[in-house]
Write a structure and sequence with these properties.
seven-stranded antiparallel beta sheet, Peptidase_S1A, 2 domains, Putative trypsin-like serine protease, disulfide bond, 2 helices, protease, mainly beta, about 5% helix, serine protease
Amino acid sequence: ILLVVTCTVTLSATKVANSTLMIHMVSPKNFRNGTSKIVNGYQAQLYQFPYYLRLLGYRNAWQDLEDYNYECGAVLISLGWSITAAHCFYAQNFNGQMDFLEKFYVIAGIINRGDHHSNVQYRVIMSEYATPHREYSHETLENDIGILKIPVPFLWTVHVDIISLPSYNFNIMDYVGEVAVASGFGLTSTNGPSSYDLQYAYLDVISRRECKETFIDIPQSAFCCKDSEYDSSICQGDSGGPITLYDVNYRITVVGVSSFTSEKCGVPPQGFTDVARFRPFIKEVTGL
């Protein structure tokens, strides 16, 4: 199969010497069995993230399911709809151009790659059901959000459940200093192996001003988080997965989807698409 290198986009930076902003898709060549962590994270427990979806992407509709080209995460916002990062719908070809993937394989109800119990649910979804934001930019990562319809909705179980969207008036900057939780199956270190188990990390929401100390050109549609104590972070393969926190009504809410980081995983901060900014887009496509 064709294994595609991870896409990179260069942004200006002042604090980090290497200013490459890295998209978090991962090719299957990076996967090895093991139980290591996301990047200084923790192993997820059963029922802890029932809204997490593993999203595999394929260049060609005829490819076997085990021959995926890219892996991302996604978030179940209803039994028939999910959100992810828009860049998870694309793959870079050998000419450097971005091709829209033709097929996706979505897996719900798992906490490790070996899960095959009766509550694990699978869906094969063709590209016609994938909707990236109309103003998504590969170059700047503005509007890095996409919606994937699940034509045959998942069935609710204790392993598979939805998560709340933020309210229309939600402002992530009101939560600066609060702890959020990011989850994913991504690499456990820069250029390292993917995690066998679903992992999660605690990250602090930071201000745009602090984020701009690293990324001058942070997308307007994004916010940043960091963990200064243990250097926990998202990494390649975590793209599109959720970052969550409790809102003012004490609901667990998906406030962002993983979008970018600096070239070296574990170096703060990391960037997430601000889901609240896209409630009108989500409403337009899904009715939710």
